[in-house]
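Check this:
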Amino acid sequence: MKGGHSKRVEKVRDFTSHNKIFTVIAVILIVFLLFRTVNRNTQQPETEQTEQSVTDETEETGWRFYPIDLVVLGVGGGFCTIMIIRERKKAKEGLN
């Protein structure tokens, strides 16, 4: 099992070097999510009354859809689709 970690690190480096757009999008999304989290944490003490009404609404609806959910689904779905297409091409080339 020696060298397993270094092999995985090499695969990740190879993947990121070939998929720079994916890496940039992932970094932007992480920064955006961190910024939103920090921004919400600083605003919570001011909006205690609003927080109570939001909590009541959440209990009634169960699950809420946020715009970031659409972004995450789109990026994840697009990435998976691209990887599936690449694997199919590799499989076809292997058969020929």
